Structure formats: structure tokens, C-alpha cells
Amino acid sequence: MSNSKINYILGIADNALILGQRLSELCGHGPSLETDIATTNIALDLLGQTRSYYQYAAELQGGEATEDTLAFLRKEREYKNVLLVEQPNTDFGYVMARQYMFDVFHLLLLEQLQNSNDEVLAAIAKKSIKEVSYHKRFSGDWIKRLGDGTEESHNRMQEAFDNLWTFTNELFLMTADDTAMVEAGVGVDVAALKAAWTQEITALLTEATLTVPDLKYFLKGGKEGIHSEHMGFILTEMQYMQRTYPNMTW
Amino acid sequence: MKTLPPQINAILESVSDPEIPVLSIMDMGVVREVEVQERDVFIKITPTYSGCPAMDTIADDIKAAFAKEGYEAQVKLILAPAWSTDWITERGRKALEAYGIAAPLTEEADKEALLGNKKIVKCPQCGSTHTRLVSQFGSTACKALFQCEACHEPFDYFKCLK
Ligand SMILES: [Zn+2]
Fold this sequence. Notes:
By secondary structure, chain A is an all-alpha fold. Helices cover 66% and strands 0% of the residues of chain A. Chain A has one domain (3-244): Ferritin, core subunit, four-helix bundle (Ferritin, Up-down Bundle), CATH 1.20.1260.10. Chain B has 2 domains: 6-86, Fe-S cluster assembly (FSCA) (GMP Synthetase, Chain A, domain 3, 2-Layer Sandwich); 100-158, no CATH class. Chain B has 162 residues and is α/β, with parallel strands linked by helices. Chain A: InterPro entries: Aromatic_CoA_ox/epox (IPR052703), Ferritin-like (IPR012347), Ferritin-like_SF (IPR009078), PaaA_PaaC (IPR007814), PaaC (IPR011882). Chain A: This is Ring-1,2-phenylacetyl-CoA epoxidase subunit PaaC.
């Protein structure tokens, strides 16, 4: 029971951490000053949310666990984030497509999680909703501008959705821990969010003159710790300081 | 929050947001609970944004300010209820404006301003509402960047959060 809860919290937190890490790679490298500031601000919000979840998970786990050991000392297979958030910043179209698809899911999830019978999770969700609504507004605006922009921006935006679409179905797959936490009144039934997600994405893509990809086969694995080839590189960069100088602090 | 003993209140008033030094943490509305037991003070603060890097500094500054007056303060971060810009006091709003940061509008007006639909954010330098949104995100999580088209001065707008 309590292990399920820890795993469940880590699943939500790892999505925020890894996406935050991806976005922070753009710090100083954004395509313009405004988008650079925006992506790093979003990264900061996600990192803040991650800290709240990790602090709670560490408290439940007890012993030597802290937010830092959870972030920096787990191995690749122990991370439960979805494959979507670990995909690279191929270009700004990919960054915004990844962001928007995650933001829509994230907001739907948090809107349910704020009713959790776990008070800490409900509080983190309530706090995060305000931030994530703002993220979605930003990413959604860019999808529209680029999709309904020039021929070049339209094609690249479409390409990003076409290539990232295969990672979207995993968002709605239930793990054993998800099921246990839904039954306990703690967690959210993510499978039930798919219809609303699809509807919202379809509406925005249509407005952006883009086509919703039609795919029959989807990739999965991240939630069970089976990640894409990108994950190792992300962790190498993120963890190297703790790995090189174990237990170092500022 | 119930009325605090004047000395305790004065100590808390002396601590400011490190990123907006003109704004005391009391005017910011982040202090949610204060309990005094002789020389021990228990304080609960709430973050403006989840990732606000100022919170650790604020907690340290509170402890230091109380230590200087012979108190021992313990600071705890709480998340519920979530902070809202409505908790910034009237004096806080004036301090923001005087410092060159436009104070948050109502929720509805904020949305229109941040979507660039309406010119309603007032330039803190010249008072003109002939201003334009430059960036939805600004120098810190709580701000967006605007520019005045009357006096051309760029300025921060403190986003409405509810
Ligand atoms: Zn002006």
C-alpha cells in the first residue's frame, strides 16, 4: 500500500523533473529572448512541483531518503516518467508540441488530483494548477502561431506532432500502482482522461490548421522504467555532480 | 491571521522578498501563521510559485531577524491554501508601483492583458495604459514583461494568480 503510494508520487514527479530538465537545456539557447525566458520559467515551475512531490515521497519512504537522493541517486530503470517528456529538443516546434501535449494532460490530471483524499497531494495539485494553466496558454499559443504561420513553420509543426504522436498513448496507460491508488481514493484514473485530452488537442490542432496524426501503434515503457535511448544522456548530465563527488553539498 | 504583538510584527515587517526588496513578506502575504511561545516563534509561510527560489532565503532571513532580537524562529513551508495575489496588501501594491512594477489586475483583466487583447496594464513610470505585452514570462516566475508605448520604458507586470 505505502509502496504503491510512493511509486505513484514518483511517477507524477518524474514527469515534471525530466520535462523540466529538458526545458532547462534551452537556458541561454532559446530561439529568442522571450521564448528562452519562458521555457526556463516553465522548467522552474516544474522543478518546484517536483520538489514538493519528492519531499513528500522521501518522508513516506523514511530512512536516508531525501528529495536529493530521489532526484540524483536513482538509476535509469527506477525513473517512472513517460517517454514523451524525455524526447529531445529537436527544434522549437518539437519543444512546443511536446509541451502542449503534456500540458493538456498535466492539467487534466491535476484537476482530478486536487480532489485526492491525500491532503498533501491535493495541496500540491491545487498549487500547480495555477502554474500549469499558464504553461498551456503559452504552448497552445505557439502551436497556433507556428501551425497557422508560414509554409515552413506549418510543415515543421506538423512534423513534430507526427513524430511525437507515438508517445502520447502511454500517458493514459494504468500501471498496477495507478490502479491501487485509484482504488484507495488517492490517485487519478488516467485512462479516463484520454477522451477529454483528444478532444482538446483536436480542437487546437484544427484551429492551427494542423492534422491530428492517425496512428495505430504506440510506444510505451517509461512508466515501467524502460526508457528510450535519450534517458541515459539526460541522467548523465543531471546526476554527474553527485556521481563524481558523492554527498557533495553547496 | 490574528493580530500579532507589535514587536513580532515589526520583525516580520523588516524581512523583505529578496527579489523585490521594497516588498515586506507581510505585505506580500506569504506569512500565514505565527505562534509565539515566550522566546520561541513558529512561523508558517507559503510560496508564491512552486519553484520560487526566494523561499529558502526568506526562511533564513526570518530566522536571522528573530535571532537578532533574541527569539528563536522555526519556519515551515505550507502549500495549502495556495497563495494568491489578492493577499498582497494595499500598501504592498503601492510599494510595487513605486518600485516600477505594475501591480496585478483582476483575474479577468489579467487574462485580456496577457493575451494581448486589451491595453489595460498601466505603465508605472508615466501612468499611460498605452502599453504592450513583450513576454508572458518575465525575470521571475511572478512577472510578465511589458513596454510602454508612450514613454517607451520597459517594465515588469506582476501577474494575477488566483
Ligand atoms: Zn510609460
